[in-house]
Here is the input.
Amino acid sequence: MEARAFLGRWHVTREIADRLGPDARFEGVARISEADDGGWIYHETGRLGLAGGPGFEAERRYLWRPGSGGIDIAFADGRPFHRMPLEGGSARHLCPPDTYEVRYEFAAWPLWEAVWTVSGPRKDYVMHSRYRQQDLQSGAPRG
Here is the structure.
């Protein structure tokens, strides 16, 4: 897959099954756009609802840098996070004492998924994100 295929708008749905706290659901939009430095900016906005509680507006940003066979993803402050393999597959991020493992799936492109399993003494959850490409003109889902 070509990295540039990720540029644009994506409808995002996310379920978080948390063994240590309430489950949650996110729905929103991710915009992946080119930055002045040749990298890309991932900016996600939407509504996060916690089971048994009120929802609230949520957002996050990452810095993406496409390269040979993958995309290097960093936190908004530039700290390295992980590498997304363009053919799908797994990656890991260590945040001692917790471990973050992700599995990317692109078989149903332009629908794709990222499933994070986070484990350790402070965190214990599975976060399943689904992305559906949106038409840039109307904002309607494609695919």
Summary: The chain has no helices and ten strands. The chain has one domain: 3-133.
